[in-house]
User: Fold this.
Amino acid sequence: MKAKVTGRKMFFAGKWVARSRVIKVYDPQDNSLIDTVPAATVEDILKCIDEAKDGAKIAARLPVHRRMSILQKAADYIESNQKTYANTIAREGSKTIREATKEVGRCIQTLRISAEEARRIHGETIAFDQMPGSENRFGYYQRVPIGIIGAITPFNDPLNLVAHKVGPAIAAGNAIIVKPATVTPLSALLLAEAFAEAGLPEKVLSVITGYGNEIGDALVTHHAVRMISFTGGLNAGEEIVRKAGLKKVSMELGSNSPVIVLEDANLEDAVKATIAGAFWAAGQNCLGVQRVFIQEKIMEPFQKAFVQLTRQYHIGNKLSPKTDMGPLISELEAIRVETMVNEAVEKGAVLLTGGKRDGAYYLPTVITNVPEDCTIAKEEIFGPVVLLYSVKDLDMAINTANSVNYGLQAGIFTNDVHKAHEAISRLEVGGIMINDSSDYRIDAMPFGGVKKSGLGREGISFAIQEMTEVKVVCFKL
Assistant:
């Protein structure tokens, strides 16, 4: 599919602006040019932050009913243009058209939930008379906007993960500057278009396109930016924390999520759920199933069914509704995954299916008997690769699952409620799904991890807590 390259503008403090230097946006499926976007400079970021200072004051003064109305109208606009949004997600990223359509639906939900949560930003009264001598005092605390938020977003959910930062920020009365992934900026610009059409005042929202290594530091380190909300890789996250200074930081840094399948589980359900969780968006998913621990008694039938179903996956054109999985975001990423798998096989791992690359495509891959010293056994793959492990019992599965530096979400399949609760209490993760894969999430729930999987929580009402400050008020009567 070829598209006319017109040159998109970036959303600079509520105005659409162009720049002479541009970034080319390619479709990873065939490397065809989709469009171009401006390559912002450090000067652009600094000017944008100055505009956002006024934007923060404007946003804080917006009454709650206006915030709610704007968020609902933005959702309405996206709902009226779903095909455009889905096609954009599918073309600039890795998702199939079916996956992209689901992301558009989730984005609409994210904005509608944000509108509802705007009315629920509450404080509480404080019993000052609990302290002797304060009998004549009365007061409360309230939550107030933090000010300017800098948001840095990844390529794998180029619309909804942006909405997860913009929706709560606007609901809470903040200004926000978004720096979307360089390879997938078009979906974020479409989100800005929805807010412009919805009547969001100028200067409240900016979507600045550019190279992270050129403009990222200016956004992260600026003293006027009071919070950085980042979703991406561990190395980049650690670098941001070192540079950010005295401000709030929210981080979602990925994982190598475990799923445990015990011998009393429904085998068919476990196989279907773990496969769907492993290969969604070509495995480029922070919640994606990477390590599956199967109780030894059912290892053979589970493995056989898992491999059989994996081989039935249809790989091909992202825009075809028949396609189950598209390419990775780039050929370089596919080569990186290929290298990790090859290292494991060279060290003794057994390749059960897949393991082949064609450009940016990498076949859904299943391996077992993976040595502990392999990179793929310890780090996030972020590709369509699953590791199967045979374990003696739940204790062994939990200990092995916890042996890595990540802890975002986990899943366990069992019909024994006592074993489920043991996993709940012992697994070192931010969320655990019972009789489902690690890849289950709704947009209203708290979302985030422990250890090196991140800091803080997303999920609209929880993000609003992160994006507001507590102010105490006390009257001396």
About this structure: The CA atoms of residues 409 and 431 lie 5 Å apart. The chain has two domains: 10-253+454-476, 257-442. The mean pLDDT is 96.
